[in-house]
Amino acid sequence: MFQFFKRVKTYVGSELNAALDKAEDPVKMLDQFMREMEADIREAETAVAKQIANEKMLKKKFDDASQMAEKRQQQAIEALEAGNEDLARRALEDKKIHQGQAEAMRGAYEQAANDAQVLREKLDEMKQEYQEMKVKKDALKARAESAKTRTKMNRAMSSIGSDESRRGFERMEEKVLQYEAEAETSEDLRSSSRSLDDELEALKAKSAVDDELAALKKKLGKE
User: Fold this and answer.
1) DSSP state for residue 12 in the 8-state scheme
2) pLDDT tens string for the chain (223 positions)?
3) Which of 76, 135, 175, 190 could make an S-S bridge to 91, C-beta 3.0–4.6 Å?
4) Where do Basic and acidic residues bias regions lie (predicted)?
């Protein structure tokens, strides 16, 4: 009768911790535990409902037998008052049968009522334990997610400071410096080339001015 209470005990204390230690994914394992506990509770509720139904059935049989015994008692009195002793005797005989049935049903009913009460208490304990485990599950899931996040961050941070990453960063820095040096060199070359062109242009401009000046002097007879 109490077999359905057995599994739920495996989720308490060290056994739960051992299960989590072996699990690849604690979050999934916790959800599985809760589903199994919910199944146990549903099974317990069914058993309690059946026991209560059995208690009510036995109670009805006890009440019916008791009422029939009382009825035969009254009928025996009425038969005697009517002067029918034989009928009164048979009524009393049937009364004793119903009294025996009532006594038997009383014992069965009281036992069933006691069992139903025990099952109700066990079911209440299971539901309370389930709620406690649900709270613990939520806390453990939050801790597991937090731990996963911290692990990812730590791995990311450790990879940032690794020798390979640092060497790669230094290589890229050298390339940038090289690009900058090449750019400066090309600008210097362009600048020097521009200076030469400017001097040549200036020379041409000076020659033209000199020619124009000589022509003007000639015209004015200054030569």
Assistant:
1) S
2) 444 445 545 544 555 555 555 556 777 888 888 889 899 999 999 999 999 999 999 999 999 999 999 999 999 999 999 999 999 999 999 999 999 999 999 999 999 999 999 999 999 999 999 888 888 888 888 887 887 788 788 776 666 655 666 777 778 888 888 878 877 777 666 665 556 666 667 667 667 767 777 777 777 875 5
3) 76
4) 136-148, 163-177
Which two structure tokens, joined as six digits, stand for 75?
């009928």
The helix (H) or strand (E) run that includes residue 29 is helix 26-81
* DSSP assignments along 109-176, one per residue: HHHHHHHHHHHHHHHHHHHHHHHHHHHHHHHHHHHHHHHHHHHHHHHHHHHHTSHHHHHHHHHHHHHH
The CA distance from 199 to 205, in Å, is 10
Structure tokens at 116: 């139903």
Q: Are 35 and 134 in contact (CB under 8 A)?
A: no
* CB distance 14 to 107 below 8 Å: no
Structure tokens at 147: 């731990």
Measured distance CA(105)–CA(67) in Å, rounded: 13
Tokens 């049903």 belong to which residue? 105
